[in-house]
Specification:
- By secondary structure, this protein is α+β, with helices and mostly antiparallel strands.
- The protein has one domain: Beta-Lactamase, CATH 3.30.450.40.
- The chain is about 35% helix and about 25% strand.
- The chain contains four helices and six strands, in the order H-H-E-E-E-H-E-E-E-H.
- The radius of gyration is 14 Å and the shape is globular.
- It starts with 10 loop residues before the first helix and ends with a helix.
Length: about 160
Amino acid sequence: MTDTGSAAVDYALLERQLEGLIADEPDFMANAANFAALLFHELPDVNWVGFYWLRDDVLVLGSFQGLPACTRIPMGRGVCGTAAAQRETQLVDDVHAFPGHIACDAASESEIVVPLVAGDRLLGVLDIDSPRRARFDARDRDGLEALAQRLLARATP
């Protein structure tokens, strides 16, 4: 049996790959787009990876990989809105049990959402869905938070 969870993910390698993608590119949105593609293709058991950017107190869909998604998410609503409002990573084993979950893809079973904070300013969130329950764990949280910080350190939108 192949491990398709976080133990199979080499976050140090992902960090080096991300750095290679963004090292010479000053445009934050281009870097975010490449970051979403990198995660979508390198993380096992994911069906959606992307960004929502804070615009006038609403999260607005940004670059992503996967099926079409919800365009706007109010602060505090669903997993993304909760992560943004609390400025705290949300690790959800079963999205169907999460109060107010917004179902963009019926195949999604678990989710992790990392808030993107530069200084004291919330820029948006990194959202990753999986068709497998309990796909994400503390190792994923730590690895994805570190990768998000690497992206944020390069530029701000």
